[in-house]
Design goal:
The chain is built from three helices and seven strands; from the N terminus they run βααββββαββ. It is α/β, with parallel strands linked by helices. α1 runs antiparallel to α2. This is Transcription elongation factor GreA.
Length: about 170
């Protein structure tokens, strides 16, 4: 009996940059290095005797389960990853770095548009599917957008759009 190939719908895939993919791979490697130590702690705690009142055993078992769970989660992220290669089109898109000016206080901020897994606003990494990310996607330098955020609406202007030339497709 021939095997049936199932096509996974595009909405299952997690869009991310190549840097975000590498970051997840690095996390997996770091966790794999911790695994033998966690297993050794579990074995040592088990050797202490009565498991029903053995706090060390319960803690070691919980820690190992947490590590295994995190590894499964990260591996699934890679399985369903769709790496987006930034395009130097002059428009805001995944992987592009954009300088924005906020109309209410004339302050400028610089963000790189990334996948939701790699988003970290403190490092200037903005999720493409955040309210601000959605509002500026597809805009060019000089364009403005009204951002509908949970705390209210605000206006931003795209000052500049650039792409790291090492990642251009």
């Amino acid at each position: 009996m021939p095997s049936k190939k199932i096509k996974v719908p595009d909405f299952y895939y997690q869009e991310m940059t190549a840097a975000g993919y590498r970051q997840i791979e690095d996390q997996i490697e770091a966790l794999k290095k911790q695994r033998p130590e966690k297993i050794a702690r579990l074995k040592a705690a088990r050797a202490l005797g009565d498991l029903s009142e053995n706090t060390e055993y319960s803690t070691a078992k919980r820690d190992l389960r947490h590590l295994e769970s995190r590894l499964r989660y990260l591996n699934k992220q890679l399985t369903y990853a769709k790496i987006i290669t930034p395009q130097d089109t002059g428009k805001v898109g995944m992987g592009s770095t954009v300088e924005l000016q906020y109309d209410d206080d004339d302050e400028t901020e610089t963000y790189t548009l990334v996948g939701r897994q790699e988003a970290d606003i403190l490092q200037g990494k903005l999720a493409f599917d955040s309210p601000l990310g959605k509002a500026i996607t597809g805009l060019s330098a000089g364009d403005s957008a009204l951002v509908a955020a949970p705390q209210g609406e605000y206006q931003v202007k795209v000052v500049s759009v650039r792409v790291n030339q090492d990642e251009v497709g």
